[in-house]
Design a protein that fits this description.
Blueprint (H helix, E strand, L loop, with lengths): L1 H28 L17 H8 L1 H33 L4 H16 L2 H19 L6 H26 L2 H9 L4 H30 L2 H6 L7 H9 L5 H33 L6
Helix pairs in contact: 2-11, 3-6, 3-8, 4-6, 6-8, 7-8, 8-11
Length: 274
């Protein structure tokens, strides 16, 4: 009985992964098509990759998208980490529950509502200040805002796993708050911080709804650009671009795996106050 259940569970996993990955591989397969459509594979060719690298506008948009994702994830990780620390050390349970609820609102709210609210906010500020135009800054601020709750949710469980007696012992030995943070707290939180950064990076990279509302002034991201081009008919140049982005994402996942493995080994050795 156990063997049959094991076989059925394996079959289920295979079907799920096939359902998820076959469309991606189908898209990547036709990136190497010599023809101009996905109706028929006429031969192997790298022509569409050549068209992609010759498209200066699309390459600039790709670079802007990755720069935006790196910056927003970095800033959101810094704010979210200290936000998780603040929530953890709040003593009143009612206040802590309120803060967690406010943090989770952005996680469950529809992206359209968030994007529209940011648009109203930036438009109002632009009218009042007179110098805030929709563009890179507004998109960056929006991505930071919706990435912070993700980082908090990644870091807070690691904070709850931490042994508070280590912090108390370090302070009894005369460690300053900075030493406690650097030598005790951050090493324990590092897996959650790394996971939060990669999650924030991913959310920023593929966000469309929020970005669509707050972008402007000639700035756009990859998701918005692909959407606008797809309305005119999907070119195999987009297939080539999607293939490269998928490979970049695969490299990031592999990098995250090895970084988390090294972090876990270092944490298992224990930390101390220097």
């Amino acid at each position: 009985m156990k063997k049959s259940r094991f076989k059925w569970s394996n079959l289920y996993l295979i079907l799920v992964f096939c359902f998820l990955y076959i469309p991606i591989f189908y898209l990547m397969f036709y990136a190497f098509n010599a023809g101009s459509t996905m109706n028929k594979f006429t031969g192997f060719s790298l022509a569409h990759f050549g068209e992609l690298f010759a498209d200066t506008r699309l390459i600039i948009i790709l670079l802007n998208t990755f720069i935006l994702a790196f910056l927003s994830a970095l800033i959101a990780t810094l704010i979210g980490t200290f936000g998780a620390l603040f929530i953890y050390y709040v003593k009143q349970n009612r206040s802590k529950t309120l803060l967690l609820s406010l943090n989770n609102i952005l996680m469950v709210s529809p992206d359209v509502i968030i994007g529209a609210s940011f648009l109203i906010l930036f438009t109002t500020l632009g009218t009042a200040v007179g110098s805030l135009n929709l563009g890179f800054i507004t998109v960056l601020l929006s991505h930071i805002a919706f990435s912070i709750p993700i980082v908090v949710l990644m870091v807070l469980p690691k904070m709850q796993e931490m042994n508070d007696s280590m912090v108390d012992a370090a302070r009894d030995l005369g460690a300053s708050n900075f030493q406690v943070l650097k030598d005790i707290v951050l090493p324990v939180l590092s897996p959650g911080i790394i996971a939060g950064y990669f999650m924030a990076f991913t959310y920023s990279l593929d966000d469309f709804a929020v970005t669509f509302f707050v972008t402007g002034n000639g700035f756009t991201t990859l998701a918005v650009e692909i959407y606008s081009r797809a309305r005119r008919g999907v070119s195999l140049e987009i297939n080539a671009l999607s293939t490269l982005v998928f490979l970049m994402a695969l490299i990031l996942v592999i990098g995250y795996y090895y970084i988390s493995q090294d972090t876990g080994k270092n944490n298992s050795k224990g930390g101390g106050v220097k």
